[in-house]
Automatic annotation (TrEMBL), chains A, B:
<dbReference type="InterPro" id="IPR018490">
    <property type="entry name" value="cNMP-bd_dom_sf"/>
</dbReference>
<dbReference type="Pfam" id="PF00027">
    <property type="entry name" value="cNMP_binding"/>
</dbReference>
<dbReference type="InterPro" id="IPR014710">
    <property type="entry name" value="RmlC-like_jellyroll"/>
</dbReference>
<dbReference type="InterPro" id="IPR000595">
    <property type="entry name" value="cNMP-bd_dom"/>
</dbReference>
<feature type="domain" description="Cyclic nucleotide-binding">
    <location>
        <begin position="29"/>
        <end position="114"/>
    </location>
</feature>
<protein>
    <submittedName>
        <fullName>Crp/Fnr family transcriptional regulator</fullName>
    </submittedName>
</protein>
Length: 190, 190
DNA sequence: ATAATTTTGTGACGATTGTCACAGGATTAG
DNA sequence: CTAATCCTGTGACAATCGTCACAAAATTAT
């Protein structure tokens, strides 16, 4: 739980008492590679703090998998829409490596948040960070070409480019695997 | 303020007392067409509830304006990253029509939220909705081609397609104006 | 009402991308 | 270690898209 506590302190003021009150809402879980954190059709009642390993979210449309996000250590993974509205998830979240997550249970988190303002603020900050991240990647597509998007990732998220395979990254960047391979070739040639 | 109150009630439980407590954080403002709600370089200390009219967010890169979002009646417009972190905004929000907004002041909203859980829940819900919307549009680019994206907007956001001019919409969809014109031609021909 | 400005449509052409196909390299399982 | 599987690179070709240019249409200002 050390990483999580550091993460929380980086976000907001958090007393030891709040930390104690938060405990009932938390549970640690190990996932094998290719194990689902969230399955299409499920309702998402959790925030997944990624302690080690990484996972991705993807839609499956006509049998084709399309990656929409990657979540690494110190990220919160969730389906924010399903989590908030109680609707079924339209996408999957799956471990790409052996993964350890600390799971925030929605119901228990809300109960804990009633008891102290700090937990409430934590929840709000997590959602806000999540929204910022979505905004960042959403913007990428409107501002930049495929080549510039790769460039952006290499500068701003080098870990992603290093850890995620080309095929998987291509899907996230919204281009064909072959295209990304050629973009990379063009770039390194320059 | 009628519209806002309805909007709030659609989101969360809200007593008359909370409504009273919220008032100091609210102010109504009229914007002319092409007036800025938020300017690049400013820190965003507001949530803008759009009462009437609509606005857009856009980046200006090398003199070229790129639209990243449109906000219509009953939407909340803001720079969620700047609002949360206090960093300067990298983009603008500008009225596309004469516009009436009800502005939530960050500082006063936080003070009000300390007094009642309902206001706190309202703030959280606004941010969550905002995150959902970002996620929705972010996903569009990873799942669909330009033509399919237009299709999606026509089905799921017909108001946007109707009210926003082709050139402006093209920028939002990440394609050239000419391309969108041709896509539309192709589609109506079928 | 008229002029000025903005928006849209379209042709031409080169650049980029998607798709199919296949081969070589890397990784994983047994 | 060997076989099977997955991942990556590349050629060919068609489809799509961006850019430039200009004219027509629509909107706005005077």
């Amino acid at each position: 739980m050390d990483n999580l506590l550091k993460y929380i302190h980086s976000l907001t003021l958090f007393s030891e008492e709040s930390w104690e009150l938060l405990q009932p809402a938390l549970s640690k879980k190990q996932y094998k590679k290719n194990e689902f954190l969230l399955h299409e059709g499920q309702i998402c009642n959790s925030l997944f703090y990624i302690d080690s390993g990484y996972c991705k979210s993807y839609y499956e449309i006509d049998g084709v998998k399309k990656n929409t996000a990657f979540f690494f250590e110190n990220d919160i993974a969730t389906n924010i829409n399903s989590f908030g509205s109680g609707e079924k998830s339209e996408f999957n979240i799956i471990a790409c490596e052996p993964l350890t997550a600390i799971i925030f249970d929605k119901q228990k988190l809300f109960e804990a948040a009633k008891q102290t303002n700090e937990i409430e603020a934590l929840g709000r900050n997590c959602i806000r960070l999540f929204a910022s991240k979505q905004e960042e990647f959403s913007t990428l597509f409107k501002l930049y070409s495929a080549q510039e998007r790769l460039n952006y990732l290499e500068v701003n998220h080098p870990d992603m480019v290093q850890r995620v395979s080309l095929s998987q990254l291509a899907s996230f960047l919204g281009v064909a695997r072959e295209t990304l391979s050629r973009i990379r070739k063009r770039r390194t040639a320059v």
